[in-house]
Amino acid sequence: MSTQANTRIVLAARPQGRPKPGDFRIETVDVVQPGEGELLLQMLYLSLDPYMRGRMNATKSYAKPVEIDAVMEGGTVARVVRSRHPEFAEGDIVLSHSGWQSFALSDGVGLRKLDPAAAPVTTALGVLGMPGFTAYAGLLTIGQPKPGETVVVAAASGAVGSAVGQIARIKGARAVGIAGGAQKCAFVRDELGFDAVVDHRADDFAEQLQAACPDGIDIYFENVGGPVWDAVFPLLNDFARVPVCGLIAQYNVIADSGIDRLPTLMQQVLRRSLTIRGFIQREFVDQRPAFYRDMADWIASGQVRYREDIVDGIENAPQAFLGLLEGKNFGKLIVRVAGIP
Amino acid sequence: MSTQANTRIVLAARPQGRPKPGDFRIETVDVVQPGEGELLLQMLYLSLDPYMRGRMNATKSYAKPVEIDAVMEGGTVARVVRSRHPEFAEGDIVLSHSGWQSFALSDGVGLRKLDPAAAPVTTALGVLGMPGFTAYAGLLTIGQPKPGETVVVAAASGAVGSAVGQIARIKGARAVGIAGGAQKCAFVRDELGFDAVVDHRADDFAEQLQAACPDGIDIYFENVGGPVWDAVFPLLNDFARVPVCGLIAQYNVIADSGIDRLPTLMQQVLRRSLTIRGFIQREFVDQRPAFYRDMADWIASGQVRYREDIVDGIENAPQAFLGLLEGKNFGKLIVRVAGIP
């Protein structure tokens, strides 16, 4: 072990608008051995998620920005390769938040042991992890879907969107997905079982969305922002709820000018008694046990399906992440850092 | 009675932007006598409220617009002058929604008998009526003030704003009012007991508001819209709540251009986990009994005070209403249509 190298990806520069490969830097450093009470983790999988774009900015947010020259943040599935910690043994597989690197030390705080026999360990980064829980908590607590209501979600083939639509259907609501391209749309409709799907790349996207929502929209689960909003907004029904968990299409926007849409937004918030509510899943931590139980049941019964898009090699994480921001992934984007031996 | 005339004010034209006197027309028509099961009401007081501006537009809203040539809508306190209805007697004083006119027929539906001995009957249009209930339901249900939190409300000397701040203080929160001019500010601070008040006409309004909210803003009760929002928005804390019940400063806006504030709004909704929630008080009808009980207690104990601005004569309603839209009233604006004999 002592001769092993840690390959890590650090933030080289804060992006101006759209990130570019040069905003990241790959480094190779020696693996540090654990002290008493510590353990050494070897990353098996790294999760790539839209929220990471926000951490690259210096702007105030619910989480601290990644510092320049610091390792990029991220959720990981790792194997304990050396333990001097009483609660972990070599060979344990854990969920950790070790970031974009192949090895990391841990004092055990915040780790969650995974049972590879219960579910593929990658699901702890997706449908049974943070993205799945974001969908679950945001939809059920803020969205509160009722039978017969219409739920719309964008990035519907992605980690969060796919869970939102399927949970909506389990609760008796009608799920309308938005996705980019024929392949993803077919997957959302045929594999995930959404009631309808609309391609946001279509010239007549807004008209198609309206046709797919003949009774209007009761819940719009906002995880993309940008142009989709303009098509969704006029369709929101009285008392519609808009949980906001991500704005990937806006993360790279520097400034906006033109028509000021804020007064219209507020007028409609008032006239239609709309609820717009930003959230992060951490806020709903008390619902996690119910989530793990429900979601495991739904996966077992086939009511929730998921798709993973796995890229090999930590050195490919920056390029994969840039693709994620442009919707190039197809399913939950995960980097395989090392194979399970 | 049969020789009496009904003076009524109808919508003559839909305003383009700011309403003008010519958008209203005064008419005099014969009073119609009640048929079986009906009663004739003589208006004593007419409530003038900002929401009426919205009803002058043809735009879709939570309520139907007033039709051209139809009587302007409005809450009224009236006396039963002739009754052919078993549940009402001549001389009863009732709360009705009879609009801008001196007489009206009713079938009794939606009327609420008032006890003039229990409280001045005008309070049924203000602190013990729709505006007071708007403050109560919006602040407690959506705002959910906690001890030590900071609650900001504009139009703080008005019917809704004055109740919001005083209820916030009863719940242990810090109340910061916004009002226009030294006289109203003094009233809000000295008579209503707000913790701080800021004059929105001051050149350094935004700086003064920031200084008045050293711990940020946890609840902004939005009942005005317009420029105040820009000063409030940067001060909203994580998990802040924004109940939206009125946008009087925007009711006359036709179109907006310049910087598009929507992307920034949504980014901050996400980053700060904000809640923005439009509402109308009708939605919370099940809380009305609690409201009547609590508010009557608070008025009796002196914890809630109120101010009325009474204008004489139904013919003066249009001018008084135009003044309301410009903040010229000082307290709950009410038209005295007829004296209590």
TrEMBL record, chains A, B:
SMART domains cross-referenced by the UniProt entry: PKS_ER (SM00829)
Residues in Enoyl reductase (ER) domain copies: 22-335
CDD domains linked: PGDH
Alphabetized GO MF terms: oxidoreductase activity, acting on the CH-CH group of donors, NAD or NADP as acceptor
Record bears the keyword Oxidoreductase: yes
SUPFAM superfamilies xrefs: GroES-like, NAD(P)-binding Rossmann-fold domains
Pfam family, one: ADH_N_2
Entry keyword annotation includes Transmembrane helix: no
Protein name, as recorded: NADP-dependent oxidoreductase
